[in-house]
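pinned: reference chain
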Amino acid sequence: MSIGDLVVPESAEALADAADELLVGLMARPWGQASPSVYETGRLVTLTPWLAGHAERVEYLVRTQRQDGTWGARDGYELVPTLSATEALLSDLLRGDGTHDGSAGAAAGPGAVADAVRRGLEALHDRLGGTSSDPAATARPALDASSLPDMPALDMIVPSLVLAINEHLNELERTPGAVVEAGGRRLGLPYGMGMERLAKVRALVASGVDLPEKLVHALEIAGEVAGGAAAVRPTPIGSVGASPAATAAWLGDRGLLDTTDRSLRHLEAVARRHGGPVPVGLPITVFERGWVLSWLARAGIDIDAPPEMLADMRAAIGPSGTPAGPGLPPDADTTSVALYALALLGVPCEPSGLLAFETGTHFCTWPGEDGFSVSVNAHALDAFGQYVRALPDDAARYLPYVQKLSALVRDHQRPDGSWDDRWHASPFYATACCALALGDFGGEESAEAVRRAVRWVLSTQRPDGSWGRWEGTAEETAYAMQVLLLSRLHGQGAAAAEVTEAAARGYAFLLEAGADADDPPLWHDKDLYLPVAIVRAAVLAALHLARTDPVVMEWYGQL
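pinned: its structure tokens
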């Protein structure tokens, strides 16, 4: 999904117009804007083959397979989407008579579905090992679970899909003339990952007791017992867990019996957005608005935020915080960014709701979180710090949190000056979150940490002026430029000439190459995703910072 259509404005007026257009889009599409997900689309192919857009979903899976047989990014990020797509296409094959390419053969091209399955199985066997009927086959090392990216519900999604694929392979071996040979192969699990937690969750769903809201987001892992699960209550718009896959799993085949079912209508509406494929999470209303407004306002773009948008955000923040969208549990990240954006825009809201996420050592994303997020704590620092700045009379109560969080964020800086995080694949995102929060609210004690971050950003710029983990992207370039330019505004940057030249080269990349950018998904959920409006806002913020800096513009004119 390209963000290039909003990377082109060069004048200050055009940038302001682009920001206003972005805000209009938030109001026009209140559920949010996110890229299609291979994982989530695969789950709909399996769970709701009768839903409008099925052939287009199958075609999408076939079309997005990589040359090596995987789907998604690399460095372990390919495992979940490759499992989901392979299982989905196997399901599509087995719904036929086993001798043709499945229900979407025409859309995907002759033989394309079966070929995609073969290549997907080979890629998975390379990574997961397992069993083989070939006595000459050599043992293949399985992935180590500890080497995989820290993604939500990974330890249950992977076992559930391995189970499903192995069941399909059993069926293929019983099917004469099947177009895909099972060959006696079965997939294993990554080393250190088991089936125990998945079994407990399935038993919990079957029992009918109330479920944790964060678990409902991945309800599809429960298998058959997810259908009509008594403890699950769809939102008024019909969504379950803000997830098309969870909604489809709960709906089951009941969507065939009642065409007015609100969950069915919700899935149809979501599928229409991308012509069949679906995103990994929707709605994301508060999450999207908070991030967009905070990127734009922090950069100094003069925005006219719709008053109803601000009122809705403020109303969404309750005693226990706010969720990213309906059907999700409240989380500290969305709560912090919403509070920060409101305070920046002159509508400060007391951050007492954040205290629900305080542990003895840090702020958790949600109570019971497995793991730690430094970006969540940096955003909490933003929220407390901006509130104290807006209403200094409350400093006595909240200033200790500012000091505690500043020290915590500093302590998690890596030796090279960067930060990394569990909610984004790129260290440029985490570094921007942490360096900007420390630059604004960390005091003199944080100045050296910010300088180290700036030096790391300068050292990682690519020859074409971009920044990126795997390749240069507009999104990551925007984060790097904000570190350079906002840090310099606070007098904490590295040598002025280095920063200016690097920012000018980044600006040139965004204008010249970024307009054609097809940025990859980098944000963590069950699958990597691209929150389009949020990334557009980050890019606009970087462009504005460069465009309003006369020294950067002078360098840009000399490139």
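why pinned: The first strand starts at residue 130 and ends at 131. Strands lie at 130-131, 186-187.
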